[in-house]
Amino acid sequence: MAIRAMPPWFDLSGAAQLALVALMLVSSLVLGGILSRASNSLKPTLPRGIVSLEAPRSSARAACLLKCMTSEQITSARWQVRWDFPFLVCYSLFLSIAAGSIAQRTSDLWQFAGILLSWGGLLAGAWDAVEDVSILQMLKGRTGVPWPQLSTLACVVKFTLLGAALAYVVVGVLVFLFRSARGVLAPP
To answer: CA distances (Å), 46 to each of 34, 53, 58, 77, 187, in order?
Structure first.
């Protein structure tokens, strides 16, 4: 008996998938905008904002970054990290459902890649949560091993999975739009 890989959302109707994709996309954009604006308060000290804390690479660098921050900036960073939890739920669900939906409309290698990236979108969110917990620990002054290193690892894995899933979704949507414009809606 062959085992067939499925995206996590394969049993949702097309209309339910579309509605969830739209809701998660809008939610991600709204929360992302709020977080981006809030990150500006950190930029006088941390030129890359909260991203500087996501990948400090070493305990010494994490301690240096925190030493440069004011108490107001540390409070702002905590607020941003806490709001990143609902954001990561929204973007990971968006990527997962969108990639899975595209995978169901394709075949062969594209379908297999979409199924993997549908799961990858969820894993990106899980790694983002690990990163957030690590940052919260660093913001409490715990800059020793393992928090900065764990945050850096989680950041790299998260962005790798997120980038691959996002690229798949963008290419999938562009292919769909191109085929729609040409009147060809069959899977590639």
So the answer is: 18, 9, 16, 11, 46
* Residue 27 CB neighbour total at 10 angstroms: 17
Name, in order, each residue with C-beta under 8 angstroms of 5's C-beta and a sequence gap of 6 or more: 112, 115, 116
| Average pLDDT, consecutive stretches of 10 residues, N- to C-terminus, the chain (188 residues) | 65 88 97 93 89 93 95 95 97 96 88 94 97 98 96 98 97 88 63
Place of tokens 């394709």: 106
Residue 4: predicted pLDDT: 62
Q: What is the pTM of this model?
A: 0.89
Q: Tell me if the bond preceding 47 is cis, omega within 30° of 0.
A: no
**Distances in whole angstroms, Cα of residue 66 to Cα of each of 46, 60, 133, 149:** 10, 10, 16, 15
Q: Which of 96, 106, 120 is nearest to 172 (CA)?
A: 106
Lookup: tokens for 125: 């969110």
Degrees (nearest 5) of the Cα angle 15, 126, 10? 25
